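Aggregate trends can hide what the representation actually does to any particular protein. For completeness, the protein is quoted in full, as a sequence line and a line of structure tokens.
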Amino acid sequence: MTNYGQFHDGFFEGLWIDEATVHFFLSTEEKERFTAVTTGVVRLIVDGLREGNIILDVLTREPDEITTADTSELYGSQSDASKEEVAKRFLAEARQQGLIIFEIDASYGGTCLALVHSVELLPRAEWMRRYCSDVSLGKQVSHP
């Protein structure tokens, strides 16, 4: 497990979903801004977004750290009799594909649980260089 401790008491500012890539906008308590770029998003649950969104933890978990509770939450509940069986099947598939969990836990406000192929944490300026384009020109903007 990787815990990004710099975000404790920071802020979950929002997200942008671009097909199978989700960009999570985060800032530290000191207002340093970052974007977590998750690619190959298989499942995503975001809940409770509101003004403020104070972060408790931001973390990633490797395939062997994913639990049936995670897959049960991500894939929704089935009938009680088959719920655990379905969760185990999805867990096995996630581990076989090498998927990881990206998670944002909140002290207040928004939470996130995502099953993804990869996560890259970028300072916001670097993210802007890579992902922002001038829509009016239809060209990628290059920054020094």
User: Anything to note?
Assistant: The chain has a mean pLDDT of 90. The chain has three helices and eleven strands. The helical segments are 68-75, 80-96, 124-131. The CA atoms of residues 79 and 111 lie 25 Å apart.
